[in-house]
Amino acid sequence: MLPIQLLVFIFGLIIGSFLNVVILRIGEKSLFGRSGCMSCGKKLRWFELIPVFSFLLQKGKCRQCGNKISWQYPVVEILTASIFLLIFNYQFLIFNANSQSEFASLYPIPYTLYPHLIYLWVVFSILIAITVYDIHHKIIPDVLVFLFVGVSFIGLLFGVLGEITWTNLLAGPILATPFALLWLISQGKWIGFGDAKLALGIGWFMGLIDGVSSIILAFWIGAVFGILLVLLSKVNTLFFLKKHFTIKSEIPFAPFLILGMVLIFFFGWDILGIKLVVSSW
Ligand SMILES: [Zn+2]
Fold it and tell me: In this model, does residue 242 exceed pLDDT 70?
């Protein structure tokens, strides 16, 4: 790993640590103020706030009361750092492919890359927070999803990831409509309205074709996951499953939407072969 990549990773750990606070304090009045132990309320000292390391040093326990600290904290930190690094490397692959020089250096970061990096880091940070929050509470907080929708739209207007076209402008509403209809028809039983808002952002972030691919992939992954969960629950071999899952169990869908989008973003799979058809015209 190059020094610049290590710096990006550490930066990601710090942002991940901040996301943990955001996830915890959404709906509360203040984002700021010292963090404390969830059980005994002990305020944390500076050395207890170092991402991942504090958790490992304290063996996942509070130093005062000995209660367990959720492993969500280090997981979110490492996930954020990994995604930050992935985005950084990915942007450099694109940059190197487009640049004339054979060896584009990683440092200093070419200034033309800053808008892309910052835009993508912001978008993926919001998505990580939405995912974790939705897994916990089975609801997508408005403040996060509107932030995602807003940032995606601004990115589209400024053409950060590509040219602004009518198709990409309409992609948001087009992707959101089926979700809104499902929500309306089922009166919120099949799907939450938060998923419709999320789809709006996905359309604007990914564009129409990749957006459609993302959502189809999300349904596939969600279906496989759901079937596996029901089967495993029937067999009852999964000792760590606290709940008995049935077809009617409520599984948050946002994580699948986001996972589908992330996979399509990095791998560019053309699920329906639309790009193939379009390019052959
Ligand atoms: Zn404690």
Answer: no
